[in-house]
Design brief:
The chain is mainly α. The protein is built from three helices and two strands, in the order ββααα.
Length: 87
Amino acid sequence: MTNAGGVAADQLRAFVDRIERLEEEKKSISDDIKDVYAEAKGNGYDAKVMRQVVRMRKQDKNERDEMDALLDLYLHALGMAPGKKQA
């Protein structure tokens, strides 16, 4: 291992190489996800709503319930709740 200014250059290079490979994989996966959303959109699905569904599925029931309660509270406060006329 070569030390330059107290830095183990070989170890640092290995970390940087790993990060770069993972960044490439992440980009590839991101492109694949975009392709799936585009395919779904081509079949008549709303990609924006699908993204929301994916986000919601990551949450547990308590988190979703809390989010729903806050959303309902905010909509009521703004006069936007279902069945209410907007002020």
